[in-house]
Fold each of these.
Amino acid sequence: MQSYFQLVFAVKNRKALINKAWKNELEQYITAIVQNNKHKLIAIGSMPDHIHIFIGYNLNQRIPELVEEIKTSSSSWIKYNNKSPFRFEWQNGYGSFTYAHSQLDVVAKYVLNQEAHHQKKTFREEYVDFLEKFAVEYDAKYLFSFFDDVRGWE
């Protein structure tokens, strides 16, 4: 049996954004983490203030452990390689959304098409839509700190 998860999490500090000049390297680094943990990376897409990671899930590792490893390792990688002039951290928390095998193509295309998607919708709008679509009860005060003016790279 295969399970499919889309993981979504956000950058913590307003000035410590993912830069277009190194976003592909970051995505490759995170891909290696996912694969080293025996998950199958289906799609990955980052924006200046958040990232989507769509995986075929290895049931031998808990999602919180995978997310923690991705966040910790990628933050260290950014710092070690001097990618950001500011302290880079991921915000606490993450979204984890499950999908059926029949949805693989649609979700993968969605994740890979983040830049065009965010021409029309902010990360806040996108994330709240996810929570509502998946019937997740939430209190707005516990959501990420969103930066509504971040839509893409210049």
Note: The domain at 3-142 is CATH 3.30.70.1290 (Alpha-Beta Plaits).
Amino acid sequence: MGKNSLVDVIERGIRMKEPPNPEGVSDSDLAGKTLQVYWYMLKHREALSLRDIQRGAGISSASLAAYHLRKLQGLGLVETSQDGDYVVRQEVQVGVTRFYVNIRRTMVPRFALYASFYFAIVALSVLLLPGAPPYLMILLAAVALFGVLTSVFEAITLSRIAPS
């Protein structure tokens, strides 16, 4: 690639896109109110009525909630049950959802799990290695505490940007 063509690419603002996910759903498909509706449905895995979704996801009108549900149906993420209620058909990891794990109706940031792991290392090293050399304990504690602090920071940051 010549010098001029690289300048052209930079000037036009072309940037590399993320590889498509296997489900074919992009970050832009799940954004704004559509993401809020999907997020609410992920947290409440049972069949939900249109009104339940409207209230729970904080959508202003039933017709707007229906619009976002049709959009999710078109993406293959939501389907209608025999009773006319809506259920999550497929869970995808795009946008902010890729940083969360659904544990018993609670969306938990993955970094919170990492923080738990590092905290367990700190606790176990104190309990299981009482006779270890001090320099080894300091090194182990420093690495594990760094992991705890960075993971907690990232979990808090993700919690702030998550849909309500």
Note: Residues 104-161 form one domain.
